[in-house]
Fold these 2 entries.
Entry 1:
Amino acid sequence: MTERKYKADDYKSDFRPTWCPGCGNFAQWRAIRAALAELEIPPENVVLASGIGCSSHMPNFLNVYGMQTVHGRGIPVATGVRLANPKLTVLVYGGDGDIYGIGGNHFLHACRRNVDIITIVSNNFIYGLTTGQASPTSPVGTLTKTTPRGSIENPLNPVSLAISAGATFVARGFSGDAKHLQYIFKEAIQHRGFAFVDVFSPCITFNKNQTFDFFRARIYKIEETEHDKEDFHAALDLANQRFVRDHLPIGIFYQIENKTTYEERDFALNQGYIPAHEELGLSDEQIEIITKEFY
Ligand SMILES: Cc1ncc(C[n+]2csc(CCOP(=O)(O)OP(=O)(O)O)c2C)c(N)n1
Ligand code: SF4
C-alpha cells in the first residue's frame, strides 16, 4: 500500500475546538481534514473563509489559511480569494443563520456565477452562538427565544434553492455519518464549479427537535437509490422531498460538469492571468504593516 502524503492530523491547528462536546461541527471538522488528506492537497494551498457563529469558528481549528470574516460574508471573501489565485482550493464554512440568513444574497449569486469554490453549511436549524433563536431553516411552529409562540415563517429549502439558482454540485450530509460526509466533501472539492453541501448538524445544546436521533430515524442515502444526479428535474423533485418529513435523503442530489465556471468565462483569468502574482509595488515595511492588521 502506498503511503499517503498527508494525514488528516496535518490539517489540524494547535487550537482545540471550543464547541460543546457532542456538537455536530466535530464530525465536519474531521471529515474536511480527512477529505483534504485523501486528495493530498497541501495545507498551504487551502483557504477556508467563514462568517460568524459557532460553526464559523472552524478556521481556528484547521492548519490551512483561514479567515473569519464579518457575519454572512464568507462567500464573497472566498470568491475574491479564488479569483485572485485560481490555483487555490477555496472553501467556505458557516451556519444556516450565517449563510442562508444574513449572507443569503451572497449564496444566491455564488450559485448562479458558478465560481469554483466549495460552500459547506452546518445546518442546525437555529442560531447556536447567540443561544438558540429561529433561523431561516427552522420549521413552522419552532419554539425559540425569538418565537415564543412558535415560528410563523415558512422555512427555506436550501438544496432546492441551490439547484434552481444554478449551483453545479448540490449535496446534503449528516454529522452522524462522518464516513459519508468525507465522501461528499471529497466529491465537492474535486468538482469543477460551485459546490454546495448542506449538512444536517445537530446543536445538542439549544435544539431539542432536530437531534441526532431525529435524523437517524429519517435519513436514507441517495447512492442506494436509482437517482440520476445529472437530471435537473429529478434533482429538484428529490430536494423538495425535504418536506416529506419521514424521508430525508442525504448524498449528491445534483452534479453537472458541462457548465463553464466564472473563472473560465473571465477574459483575463481564462488566459492564465493570476492577479495574486502581480507585484504590489509596496515596500517590505508597508507589507508588514498590512499583514500585522490580520493578526
Ligand atoms: C451583523 C451581525 N448581526 C448579528 C450578529 C449576531 N450573531 C452572531 S452569530 C449569529 C447567528 C449564528 O447562527 P448560525 O449562523 O446558524 O451559526 P451557529 O452558531 O448555529 O453555528 C448572529 C445572529 C452579528 N454577529 N453580526
Ligand atoms: S451551542 Fe450548539 S452549535 Fe454551538 S457549539 Fe454548542 S452544540 Fe454546537
Entry 2:
Amino acid sequence: MSRKLRTLRETARFDVCGYTKPVDLSYHLNSFIYPAVGEKGRVYRLFKVLLSNFCKANCFYCMNRKDRDYPRYRFEPAELAGLFFSLWKKGYVDGLFLSSSIDGDANNTQEKMNRVVEILRKKYNYSGYIHLKVMPGVDENLIKKAFKLSSRLSLNIEAPGTKFLKNLSPDKDFSALLLKNLKKICLLNREYPLPAGITSQIVVGAGGETDRDIMGFIFRLYRKFNLKRVYYSGFEPIIKTPMENLPPCAPLRELRLYQADILIKQYGFSPSELVFDKKGNLLLDKDPKLVWAENNPERFPVEVNNASIEELVRVPGIGLTGAQRIISRRKEKRIGSLDELNGIRINISLSSKFLTFNGRYFKSESCLIPSDENNPVKEEYEPVYIK
Ligand code: SF4
C-alpha cells in the first residue's frame, strides 16, 4: 500500500459511517476497508478515505490540523476514482466513503470530491453505494451536484452547540457554517431524497459537553432536520495537538450514546425521560432503557397480549422488530408463556420481569438470546443503517 493511501485512509478513521465494536478498532486500522453494519445486520465493506489531508483549519483535536507536523498528501480525482473502482471490481469493497480536510478552500475541495464521484458514475458506470462528505460552508450549487451523484451525504456538526464547538474548533462558526449548511442539505433532501439520507457526526468527550447536552441537541436535530442518523465519534488524544493530554472518551460512553439515540429516534423517548448521573451523563454500567424501566416501576408490568407497540418497545429486551413479532404472533393466538416469547427470539432474560402473560407473571430461568449489553446492533436495537 502506498504511503499516500496509508495516510489518507488512516486519517479518515475519525469520520464515522457506522457503529462497529466499541473497543475493537484493529480491523479498520490495519486495512483500507472499514466495516459498517447495514440493513439486517449485514456488514458492508466501505473504502473510507480522504481526498486530501492538507487543511486550512486548526481544530484542536484533529490529526490533520494545519499546525500539526504530519505528512500531507492529496489524490487527484481521476486517480482516486480509478483506485476505488479497481478495488470494487476485484470484490474487495462494497462501497465508497469519501471525505476530506479543507484543502485550501472548501468550495474547491468539494468540487474535487464531486469530481471523483462523477468519474465513478459516468466514466466507470459505477452505480453502487457512495457516502460523500459535504465541506462546511460550500456553495449551494456544489451541494446540489453532490445530491445528484451520491447515495448518502453527511456534514459533521461536531458539537452540540456553539460553546462546545469553540472548545474544539475555534475557527468554525457553529450557526453560520455548520447548522445552516446542515439545514440546507436536509431541506434539499426533502425535494430530492437520497436513498441513504443525510447523516451527521458529533465528537464526544473533548468539548466539555455532557450526554444530557448531546441528547437534548440531537432530539431537536432529528425533529427539525429529519436526519437519518447521528454518529458519535469518541475523542482520542492525538500527539502534537493541543488536546494530546486529555483523556480519551470511554468506549462505553459512545455505546450508551448510541443506545440512548435509538430510544429517542426510534422509540419515542424524550431527553427528559432519560436518566443521567449528577454530572449529566448516562450511566456507563447499564443500558439506558433498562435504567429508565427500573426508575419507572409504575409503567410495568406490561401485559404482552394487550400492550401497544409503543409500550412494548419500552420493555428492556424488546426492540422494534421483537415488538412487531409479538404483535403478529398475537394475531394467531394469545401468548401464554416465556417459551413462546423465546420461540420468537425475544430476549426473555431482560424482558420477563417487566411482562405478564394473561395476567400471570413468570420468572425467566433460561434464555435463547444471550444478553449482550455491549452490542447495540443485537436484537434489542435496530441495525445501524448505511443504505
Ligand atoms: S476542518 Fe478541522 S476537523 Fe476537519 S480536517 Fe481540518 S482541522 Fe481536522
